[in-house]
Amino acid sequence: VTRAAGTAGRVREALARAVGDHIVAAGERGHLRDATETRGIAGRADAVALPSTTEEVAAVVRWCYANGLPVVPRGGGTGFAGGAVPVDGGVVVGLERMTRVRAFEPLRWRVQVEAGMPTAALRRRVRESGLVFPPDPGAAESSQIGGNVATNAGGPHAFKYGATGAWVTGLEAVVPPGDVIAVGGPVRKDVAGYDLVHLLVGSEGTLGIVTAAWLRLIPAPEAAFPVVGVYRDAPAGCRAIELAMASGIVPAAIEYLDAGTLARAGAAYPWALPAGAGFMVIAEADGSAAEAEAGRRELRAALAEDAVSVEAPARPEAIERLWQWRDGVSLAVTASCGGKVSEDVAVPVEALGEAIERTVAIGREHGVTGLSWGHAGDGNLHCSFLLDPGVPAELERARAAAHAVFDLALALGGTVTGEHGIGVVKNGQLRRQWPARAVDLHRAVKHAFDPQNLMNPGKKLP
Ligand SMILES: Cc1cc2nc3c(=O)[nH]c(=O)nc-3n(C[C@H](O)[C@H](O)[C@H](O)COP(=O)(O)OP(=O)(O)OC[C@H]3O[C@@H](n4cnc5c(N)ncnc54)[C@H](O)[C@@H]3O)c2cc1C
Question: How far is the CA of 279 from the centre of ligand 1 (A)?
Answer without folding.
Answer: 28
